[in-house]
Amino acid sequence: MSESLQEKQTYEVDVSHVNQSDNTASVDLLEKGDTVNSLQDLTIVEDGDNALSKKIHLINNAIDEIGFTWFHVQLFCIAGFGYSVDSQMEMIQSGVKTYVDYQMKGGGYPAATEVFYAGLITGSILFGFGADLIGRKIAFNSSLILTSIFGFLTGGTSSYAMYCIFMFLSTVAAGGNIATDVAVFLEFLPSKYQYLNTSMAAWWGVGQTIAGLIAWAFLPNNSCSSGDYCPSKINRGWRYCWYTNSGIVLGAALLRLFVLKLGETPKFLVSNGRDEEAYEEIMKISNKYNRPCSLTLQQLKDCGEINDDYFNISKATSIKIGLKELWVTTWSNIKILFSNKLVIRSTILILTSWLFIGISYSVFYNFLYIYIADHGGSTGTSTYIVYRNATLDNFVGIFGPILGGFLIMIPKVGRRGTMVFGALAGMAILFGYTTVRTPSGDAGFGSATYFFVNIYYACLYAYTPEVFPTRARATGVALCLVAGRVSGAFAPVTYWYGAQSGSSVPIWVCGAIIGSLSILAICMPFEPSKQRSV
């Protein structure tokens, strides 16, 4: 027997014997629940806490028994818009940075880009790590409204320093938002529909398309042409972009607060010893949509108490929340992410994947147009064509995650096979992109790039929380986002110094790194297509 199978048998919970002598009703529920979905729980990622594994199994059975409801449709759209906001922010900043520099700075090193990445990293840490301490609900409900408020302030600034400060604060909230969206959706989703966690990344393309349309509408006719003379009165386009984007985000924030009215996720609640609240959240959905649910509070309690050490940390931090408490809880969660050999292997491979895609994709695109220009090509004769092509690229990119959602449902493909396909196809298209010499070629290859790379990106985004345990899910996602964004922050540095030397080496190295992501995907030990997320 292989080491993987031995460890799996050691860590999986035999749920058919949950308190058999004292709780016949629990056994009946587990057996009934198992007929709802034949998939086993991915319990190996838990840190040996049998009581928590039993509770998670009961929660999974209850969610599967209730099934897919209008609540899940709303959550798909509203949580999915979190993907949209993250990509919108990046595209807006990328589109306006030149005109902001013309008006306020006059050129030089792209400091605002580094500030943008710093905001994303900070947000991932504060909201991501904090979501495992104080819960998903607060981060989920507050992030978008903070993004919009500081976004409006960014558009109204009159100095480069203030622009960077308010943009930083806005991206802190946006970066924290995406760290929780995918975890929230996954923890409410029936296992039969887990493929939607991949397809939800289509909202990323929606956000990029919205940002592209905003830039296309305002920048060509409301921007100065150089930094020689660029007062605010002839350079209002970048402000209009920030105002419009922030207004859209504010609308989404209000939908979260007053339409969805999200409660805390049941899996987070049971992992913190709050069985009564978890049961109430499950029953709210069951009662609202008139769906059957056999779960009882007593069955959750009969599973026993969760790990005392973690429970004591959770109780302490629920009373007093500060940097010390955040550090204690985060360190405890990080240890869960490295709790046994298979989990260590999985965590390292996922973090490495985020590091690689973060640096390679950003650097490739920074160098691509320099390479094309050096080889006699031109990808845009006017600002109008540049933004038109960008909008087309982003629109086509919407459909990559949708295809990815279908691919993962094919038994012999699954999550890992889909990531392999996305990485290899993305590498092939990116290398083909280097042959482009015309605006029409740029539009075609750009669209294909977004389509295939988004297949990989969408699957990686969904796979990441699926193989992390409930207690440390938001922490794990935050670590991965930080890894991707720290490495992405080196893209402007590489671009700035590489562009000076005229070297084309980075473009080929980064393309090859994107292809190497397929090897990492093959080596990942878990296939969530065959098991339920915990």
UniProtKB/TrEMBL annotation:
Membrane topology: Multi-pass membrane protein
Pfam families xrefs: MFS_1
Keyword set, alphabetical order: Membrane, Transmembrane, Transmembrane helix, Transport
One cellular-component annotation, GO: membrane
Domain Major facilitator superfamily (MFS) profile: start-end pairs: 72-530
Signal peptide: none
Compartment(s) of residence: Membrane
One Gene Ontology term of the molecular function aspect: transmembrane transporter activity
InterPro entries hit by this protein: MFS, MFS_dom, MFS_trans_sf
Parts of the chain that traverse the membrane: 115-131, 138-154, 160-189, 201-219, 242-259, 348-372, 392-410, 417-436, 448-464, 476-499, 505-526
Protein name (Swiss-Prot/TrEMBL): Major facilitator superfamily (MFS) profile domain-containing protein
Record organism: Pichia californica
